[in-house]
Design brief:
This protein is mostly helical. It contains two helices and no strands.
């Protein structure tokens, strides 16, 4: 709904002036939404607050990613060596 809300048009002006660089990465192959969120958090690409019930629209966004390790065998922006494996029994670490 952000696209049609007049109050956030400043975001689009910043995009058009190259002051904001949005990107999209779609994870259509992932089994479910819970896993998608975990993967994005682990990759440093999740910018939503944990409690989205207490915010609305852009107020739910954070300036920095919400990085949380979940699996040591999936791509991550930081080593997640203390996390469990997702794909048992393969057990191949992303960070060696």
């Amino acid at each position: 709904w952000e696209y049609h809300t007049r109050g956030v048009y400043d975001l689009f002006f910043r995009m058009f002036k190259n002051n904001t660089y949005p990107y999209i990465y779609h994870m259509c192959w992932t089994l479910n939404m819970n896993d998608k969120v975990k993967y994005y958090q682990q990759m440093g690409e999740w910018f939503l607050k944990n409690d989205t019930n207490s915010c609305l629209g852009l107020d739910c966004c954070m300036d920095k990613p919400n990085i949380i390790c979940h699996f040591q065998d999936k791509p991550s922006i930081i080593p997640c060596l203390d996390s469990p494996f997702k794909d048992e029994p393969r057990r191949v670490k992303f960070w060696n």
